[in-house]
Every structure is written in C-alpha cells, then in structure tokens.
Amino acid sequence: MKDGCFMHYLPNDTVEKEMLKKMGLSSIDDLFDDIPEGLRANGLPLPPGMSEIEVLREIDSMMKVSKGAGDMLMFLGGGFYDHFVPTVVDDAVSRSELYTSYTPYQPEMSQGILQALFEYQSMMSDLIGMDVVNTSMYDLPTAIGEAILMSKRMNHRDVFLIPEYITRDKLCVIENYTMGANIELKKVPFKNGLMDLDALNAMLGDDVSGVYIENPNILGLFDKGAMEIKEMLDKKQVLVVGINPMTMAIATPPGEYGVDIVVGDVQPLGIHMSYGGPSVGIFGTTMKNVRKMPGRIIGATKDVEGRRAFAMTLSTREQHIRRERATSNICTNEALTSIMAAAYLAALGKNGFKDLGTQLASRGRYLANLVNELEGFTAPVYPGHFFNEFPVKVDVDVCKLLNACEEKGALAGIDVSAEIDSLENTFTIATTEMHTHMDYEKLIQVLKDAREVVM
Amino acid sequence: MSGDFRQARYDEPLLNEKGKPGRLGVALPPWDQMMDPGDLLPEGMVRDELVLPEISEPELVRHFVRLSQMNYGTDSGIYPLGSCTMKYNPKINDRIASHPTLLRMHPLQPEDTVQGVLKMMHDLQEDLSDIGGLDACTLQPAAGAAGEFTGLLIAKKYHETRGDTGRNEVIIPDSAHGTNPASAVMAGFKVIEIKSAPDGMVDLDALKDALSEKTAAFMITNPSTLGIFEINIREIQSACHGVGALLYYDGANLNALMGKARPGDMGFDIMHFNLHKTFSTPHGGGGPGSGPVAVTKELAKFLPVPLIVKDGDDYKLDYDRPDSIGKVKGYFGNTGILIRAWTYIKILGGSGLTRSSELAVLNASYIRSRIQEKYPVPFRSEDQRTKHEFVASASFLKEKGGSAKNVSKLLVDRGLHPPTNYFPLIVDEALMIEPTESETMEELDKFADALLEIADATEEEFQGAPNNSTVSRVDEVLAAKKLILNWNQFPEEE
User: Fold this and answer.
1) Scanning A45, A52, A442, B493, which has the fewest C-beta atoms within 10 Å of its C-beta?
2) Cα separations (Å) of B485 from A283, A299, B479?
3) Is the pLDDT assigned to residue B247 strictly greater than 50?
4) Rounded to an integer, what distance in angstroms lies between the CA atom of residue A336 and that of residue A93?
5) In chain A, positions 244-273, which contact chain B (CB-CB < 8 Å)?
6) Domain closes at, from B348, B374, B393
7) What is the band of B341 on the pLDDT scale with cuts at 50, 70, 90?
8) How confident is the model at residue B38 (pLDDT cuts 50, 70, 90)?
9) Are residues B54 and B21 in contact, defined by beta-carbon separation less than 8 angstroms?
10) Same-domain status, A322 and A371
11) Are A363 and A314 members of one domain?
12) Which residues in chain A have Cβ-Cβ distances shorter than 8 Å to B30?
C-alpha cells in the first residue's frame, strides 16, 4: 500500500509494467510526455486517502452535529416534505444494473431502464392528465424556466406572466433561464392569497406568451383560478400550471382544464429530502406540442422480430443531435429519481394513493383548526382550501417566533413573509403522515410558549 | 463467434398490465380524522378518476428485479462509453449518501441544524477548486450542461460589469459536445463554430480569425474529444485573453488529468466538473448528476448564491453576494450526489486521484495499441499520445456493409457495452472508447479481442446482430414515426 487505501478501485495498479511493456513503453510518465513541461502538475495538494472505516467515522461525527426530521419536530414544506419513503422504493432502485447504467444509447441491452422510464412517463401522464411527460427536468424551478422557453418557441411572444407570490429561489432561477431568450417577466398581483384574475385579465395583451400559476400556491392554498385562466387566453397563449403531485391523489388533474404545460417537483412521491436534492422536475404537455418539448422522451416500438421494445425517441430535439438549435441543453437529467417516483406510485397504487392524499388534506385541516384556536394565531390566514400546508398569521414578529420555536425543539414552519414583501408575519406549516397526534400537541404547546417568550 | 452471453428476456408486462383490483404495495397507518375530499377541496376540483396500478409488494419487487436483469450497468461489465467516464461506483458512496439524518434533512432547515452537511459541501468546494487549480467553486448546477450554462452566465456578467456589453459570441470547436452550443444559446450567446485542424487540434488560425471584441468566451475540453492533449493551450490562452475573451474548460475529460495538469494552470478562467463522470457517482440510467463550477479569483464574486463559507468554527450559507448571477437551481445542488463525490475524494486522497488518471490513460492507450492496426485512429499522428479515451474509425467496414453501429451490436452480443458511436462528428464511423481505470487488463484484452474479431465479421453477421440481448435490433425509426409515449397510446391490436 502506498500512502492511502485507494488500491482497491484500481486493479491494474499491479500490472502496470506488463501493460506498458506490451505497448513498448517503460514508464507511465511516457503517456503524459506530450503535456508541455511548464503545465505538468506533480500530484494534487489533497490529504492522503482514507479507509472506509475512517470515512464512516468522519461522516458519523459530522452528522452528529446535524439534525433531520427524525431528530426533531419538523413542519417545514414549501415544495419539499418529510413524507414516508416505503422500503420497496429504495429497493427498486438499489439494483445496480439499473443505477450504474447511463443514457440508454444501446436500446437492445438497456430495456430495463427504458421500460422503467416509460412506466414513469405513463403513470405521471395519467396522474396530471397530460398526453406526454418527459423523463425529467432537474427540479421545479428549472422546469418552470424550460416551460417559459418552450412557450416562446410555440408563439414567438416576449412577455410571460408569473405570480407575484413566488419564492425568490424560483424567481431567481426563472430569470436566469429566460434572460438569454429576451423574455420579459411580469408579475400578476394577488388578492386574498390567490392570483387576482381581474388584474391578470388586464395584463393579457397580444405580446403575452403565457401565464404561470401554482396550484396549490406558495401559501399552500389551492387556486381555483387556474381552472378559469385558459378561457381568458387567446388561441396562441400558453397556460403553465405548477402542481404538487401528491395533490393529484384527490384534485382534478390540470389536463382536464386545458393546461398546455404542467410542471411540478416529484419529491413528495417517494424521494428522500437529502437537503434539497436530487429530485425531479415534472414536465408534461400535449401531443400537439411534443416536438417543442425539452428533455428526454422514451417511446415504445418493436424489435425486428416483432417483440415489444423501448427506445429513446424524438432525439432530434436534443442537444447531441441538434446542437445550438436544440430545445434545451439538458443531457444528464434525473432519470433514477423518476424511477423512484414510479415505484412509489405503483406501491401505493390506486387506493393507497387516494387514501394518502385524503389523509394529508384531512390532517392539514385538523392541524389548522388546532393552530387557529391558539390566541394570536390565525390559520389559515385567507379563507380557502389547502392540502397538507397552510398559511398562519401571528400577532408577533414571525422571525422571532420561529427562532423561539426552534429553541424549544421544533421547526414550526417557513417564514413566507420573508419571501413576499406585501405579506407580514405569515408562515406556513406543513404536515405529513409521519406526524402523530402527540407531535401536533407538542407543536401547539411550542407555538403557545414561543409566542409568550416573544411578546 | 458470439460466445455464451445471454441477457435475460422476461417479456415483463408493464406495471399497468400486472396486478388485480384491491392489491396494495405498501401499508400506511390510518388517520382517525379522515374527511371527504369534497369537503377539503374547492368546488369543482375533486378528482373523478384515479388510474394507477394495483399490485402487491412481491410483484413490485420482482418487476424491478426483472427490469434490472434486462439492463446493463458498470456493475455488469466494461462500459467504455467515450466522454461519459463510466467508472466503478464505489459502494461506500451509496452507504454514506444513505445516512438517515441526511435523508430526512429539509433544505430550509436553519444553518445551526445542518453544520455537518455544510462542512461536507465546504470541503468539496475547496477540494474541487484545488483539483481544478482555480480559486472558488459552486456546487449548485445539477449536471454538466447546467454547469456550462452557469459558467456562461458568469462570463456574461463579468463582461457586462466591466461595461463591455458587446460580447455576444461564444466560440466552440466542431468537435465539442452538443451541450456546449446548446448551453451558449440558452445563456443568450451566438455560437461561432470553428473547424478542427487536420491534426484534430484547435486550428489556431481559425480561432484567431473568429476571436474579436465580440467574443465572450471560448469553450474547449482538454484533452479534446479525440482524447488528444491540446499542446497549443498556452497560445490559445494568450489569443483569447489578448482580445479580452474568457477561456472555459468543459470538465467532461478531466479524468485524464487529475494531478497531471490543472485547468487553472493552463489559463482557464471557468470550468465545470461532472461528478458523475470523474468523481464516481452513479449515472443512474441518465441521472441524477452534478456539475459544480470553479472559477478564478476575479470571477468568484459572480458565482451563484449561496456559497458555503466558513466563519470561525461555523459553516454558513452566504447569500450576501451583490454581484452574484443569482441561482441556477432550487436550493444548493444535488446534495445526495455531492456527498458521494466527497466520499470518493476522501477515500482516494490526492495521490489516489492522480493514480486513477494515470491508470485511466494507461487502460485507454492499451486498448488503442491493441486495435489500431485494424481500426485506424484518425487525426492521430504516429507516436502521438492519446489520453483517457481515443476515437477509432470503423469506416473500413463500409465496403462489406459494416458500420460503427454494426460493430456495437456485435459487441452487445458478446456481453460488452459498446463505445460511443458517431461522436465526435468529425470522425467517420466513430467509435469513441473510454474504458476508465476500473477495468482489469483481462477485461481490456477481452474487449480488444472482440473488436479484432468483429473486424472480420461478414455482412450477414453485421446485419443480424444483436441476438443475445433482451430484444433484437430495435426499430428506432418506428419509435419516432408512430409515437407511443405512454401506455394509453398503444394501438388497439396489442
């Protein structure tokens, strides 16, 4: 062993001389003698390698100073949720013939990954009510950016309308995605926690390419306006709706209200939070627009003997063929995470998924009622319907309140008034099937005590 | 002559063709305060019909086991897909990424509850900067192409901040990855493509002609996609910087050079890393990946927010960066991938990474030396070195009806994953071969033997393959002609 423990990944370390000899060379340095001398580096300024034991020890000590939802009471949402990931989901993607493969350029020996991705496309299409779903975008913010770019490809118009109430994170990503195409973003005002459709109507000139609306929105509220917007648009304008896929268990799929592009973040469907990624950006559209779509698409076909087979298709939209005229630059995507979502949806199945969706919305209502009974708290702030997340207004400084909650052992929610200038002292609480009645009782006590501390 | 390889063939039904009404694949605890969806949703927003499979857990497990057996990964055998660096993905990476605390860590948790994971990310920022010979690094981009996009936004902002607003062109060689021009367009640039010189290098005259006060950046990989080290890199650098343009390094080929040469030392200003290539994170059938971007000191202030910074003993998310380009992805990057790359770097250390690059180059050169008598390596002069990959041509097979694709299908029949075909575009019938450092000499010999044997195949053998894979030759034309993109779109007769 040299100075580290790295030899176990490098089988030819022991036969280097033999291989060089067969090639008529004497030293490994010969293979690098074309690099101009002034540019040659003499190794790397990094510490020596470690054994697995040492690395495990290090990660354990690092994680000891970190906490997850298993170590404290947590009610954070905002697109990522601490849902349960069934064991069978992790198992499905633990098969290394799947996870150590790459883009299935050779379909004959890659039918497994192709079929799994086709199954994801199929289940997600059914779930959101769209004809076609690509295998993945990186996440929701980048999927919104891609949807706005696609909208411009569809109608060559330069203005795109987005909600006033949107996270800074998303806004920032969308701005970067659309800048190169010279798209002007305009914000549609909100009224009572929902998009103001009158204001929207007034903004719909013939320079408007499309509208993006979230349902449920940043406050956790279902925005029924999403179902009415299509009728307000002209024939060329594009409606993009952002969803939480978990709500599809009980809520009308956007495909049924004429949506052109559906985006969302797949994380609630069996994806570990992992401090923010990897997840998947859902991207679905209609057959009419499939050739304008970004990302990878799997199609069913046959082999020469007539067997059912799968292959990547419509690749002429993609960067490796179309180069600067591609519909997107995306190549490596989030394929394996999509397969986790497929395994999740299949595991819960028709009945389990509907039950879970109903349970989550019921829990949301139940917890909102408990919070609303507390002095100084209003939940939900706006009259409206919500899923597992709802907006709460408090009569003290929300930032101080949430800090006081943390000191009492609970991450009670997300300060959305920090994201939206026109909101004051408002935070969202999210719940999942991981919470018990006792967790709710503790949260209520913490909120009550924290408010008293802050007052 | 095809050997004994047989891939599994299950005719496995789709998930919606399996199961029976009422079956469940997982049980979740009930909730005692269930309400009716009609009372929970706005009027008119209750879903009528939900279509999903109804299958039990054993059926589901068996389904995925069968799909996996009808697939081929680096754990199955050699996977010499050029430019993709399909190296072994160490199992310890997955174990560490599955730490239960990390899995249930929400991205909006307060900093004081995530110190360990912030330390990991800070380490990785620093280590990648050292490996690249650059000064600062963001982990946010989710893939190599996202890294390119990020790097080009930084270039744009850099020029604009200096009041140099006329730079709307990015120069790219014709041998570049397709993501380069696609990313440049997304970032709002016009792409100027330049032809490669007869020796496969950047054509210095063509570059000098293309460079102007309109050039924002020149994007290249080194070694090039032909696997050849760009020896004129110094001249390229001074030509670019001479007109005020930045030099962008596409890190797809970094596996050739770790510890042997550093992009920063070559004069590059911006680079991206592909953690799923060079740093051993699994390719996942197409993703997730990760594409961190490193830059020089001068460009550091433009990196996306937040960077992970160390303040005394504490790690923090630094959003207070007024010149930042903003964000290119939600949250902080693909953390579950980052921690795998962190693990890999910890295990190998500086000398292990250097040794990996040495053996990656040794392995690729070894295959080349074994097959180059039969398969010419265009653009390469005699005795010229190639690095972690090389591009051979199968054009000599045309006279008997063979092609790069046919060679690949005959490799499939031998249980060997084919190389990249038809890329780079400048080589006729290209076979782009990158075995990586993970392969044994025995596996390399087996692969080279197979290629030599295939060179003598008959037209009939070429046309008939593959026969030993899950399916025979797939009709990709039909897939594009009669689109079936989900399971509701199969024609009636099926």
Assistant:
1) B493
2) 13, 5, 9
3) yes
4) 7
5) 248-253, 265, 272-273
6) B348
7) very high
8) very high
9) yes
10) no
11) no
12) 359
In this structure, are residues B54 and B19 in contact, taking their beta carbons and an 8 Å threshold? Answer: yes
Q: How many domains does chain A have?
A: 2
Can you tell me which residue has the tokens 């005719």? B11
Residues B337 and B397 in one domain: no
Residue B47 has pLDDT above 60, yes or no: yes
Under 8 Å CB-to-CB from B208, ≥6 apart: which residues?
B239
d(C-alpha B136, C-alpha B303), whole Å: 8
Q: Which residue does chain A place closest to B361, by CA atoms? A: A31
Please name the member of B65, B90, B440 whose beta carbon is closest to the beta carbon of A95.
B65
pLDDT at A4 over 60: no
Per the CB < 8 Å rule, is B343 touching A6?
no
- Find the mean pLDDT for residues B48-55: 96
Q: What is the CATH number of the domain that holds A449?
A: 3.90.1150.10
Interval B210-214 mean pLDDT? 98
With beta carbons under 8 A apart, name residues in chain A contacting B466: 108-109
Sort B204 into a burial class: Cβ within 10 Å, 0-12 / 13-18 / 19+.
middle
Tokens of A412: 């009670």
Of the partner residues A99, A117, A365, the one whose CB lies closest to the CB of residue B40:
A365
The domain tally of chain B equals 2
Q: Do B286 and A49 touch (CB under 8 A)?
A: no
A contact residues 219-238, partner B, Cβ 8 Å cutoff: 222, 224, 227
Q: Which sign, positive or negative, has the C-alpha torsion B231, B234, B237, B243?
A: negative
Give residue B2's pLDDT: 58
pLDDT of residue A1: 43
Put simply, the answer to whether A224 touches B42 (Cβ < 8 Å) is: yes
Q: CA-nearest residue of chain B to A352?
A: B24
**Which residue in the set A64, A106, A326 is minimally distant from B418, CB to CB?**
A106
| Domain boundary pick from B310, B326, B348 | B348
End-to-end alpha-carbon separation of chain B, Å? 36
What residue has token string 């910074």?
B309
Residues A89 and B28 sit within 8 Å (Cβ to Cβ)? no
Of A278, A311, A344, at which residue does a domain stop?
A344
d(CA A232, CA A224): 14
The answer to whether residues A404 and A417 belong to one domain is yes
DSSP string of A46-92, one letter each residue: SPBP--HHHHHHHHHHHHHTB--TTTSEE---TT-------HHHHHH
Decide if A176 and B153 are in contact by the 8 Å CB cutoff: yes
Taking each helix axis from N to C end, the angle separating A111-128 and B57-69, rounded to the nearest 10 degrees, works out to: 130
Q: Do B284 and A99 touch (CB under 8 A)?
A: yes
B65 chain-A contacts, CB cut-off 8 A: 95
d(CA B224, CA B459): 33
Q: What is the pLDDT of residue A7?
A: 81
Is the pLDDT reported for residue A448 higher than 80?
A: yes
Radius of gyration of chain B (CA): 25
What domain range includes position B435? 352-480
At residue B387, φ and ψ (nearest 5 deg) are: -105, -125
* Residues in chain B closer than 8 A to A292 (CB atoms): none
Domain residues for A427?
Answer: 73-85+349-454
pLDDT for res A5: 57
**Would you call the peptide bond into B322 cis, given omega within 30 degrees of 0 as the criterion?**
no
Give the largest Cα separation in chain A, rounded: 84
Distance between B225 CA and the closest CA of chain A, angstroms: 14
Which residues face A429 on adjacent strands?
A: A390
Contact: A322, B79; criterion CB under 8 Å:
no
Within this chain, do residues B193 and B341 fall inside the same structural domain, yes or no?
A: yes
- For CA atoms B27, B29, B32, B34, the dihedral sign is negative
Closest alpha carbon to A177 in B272, B274, B326, B246: B326
